[in-house]
Amino acid sequence: MERLLNPDTGLIIWTILSFLILVGLLRMFAWEPLLGAVEARETCLREEREAAERARAEAEKLRREVEARLAAAGEEAKGIFARASQEGEAQRARLKAQAEAEAKTILEKTRLELEEERRRLVAQLRGDLAGLSVLAAERILRRSVDPQARKEALEEFLKDLDQGVRKA
């Protein structure tokens, strides 16, 4: 223990000299490569950090672009849907108006045909009635002009008239 408290000066000098030689040798042969490796590692880490930051910024930029495109596509889809809805509504209105016009035309045509048929039937009925009237007058004139004969002729005329109307 005493040796530890009173070190030998020669040993101290040799220890210091050995340490300085070791530091000198390390500096000559190992210091530059070690510093170069540390600097290369620092440079590599810095470049990787910068590349990661650029990639993150690019990813954020792309995310914003995609969101903007999605929003624009959504708005465009809404616009397309609105236009399609408006066009569909306009088409429905056009078809409804066309159908109403066609129905009105058909009704008017049918009304005119019915009116023409009624006129034709009235004219035919008048012709038949005129013929029956002439026939009744002829029968009345053939018979004697006494009241009983006129009554019978009139009843016969009305009977013939009723049968003619039922046939029509």
Kindly describe this structure.
The model has no long low-confidence stretch (mean pLDDT 86). The chain is mainly alpha-helical and 168 residues long. It is built from 3 helices and no strands. Helix content is 95%, strand content 0%. It has one domain. It is rod-shaped. Helix 2 packs antiparallel against helix 3.
List the helices and strands and how they pair.
Elements: H1 2-5, H2 9-142, H3 147-167
Helix pairs in contact: 2-3
**Cα gyration radius (Å):** 63 Å
Low-confidence stretches: none
Supply the number of structural domains. 1
Reading the helices and strands in chain order gives HHH
Specify the overall morphology. rod-shaped
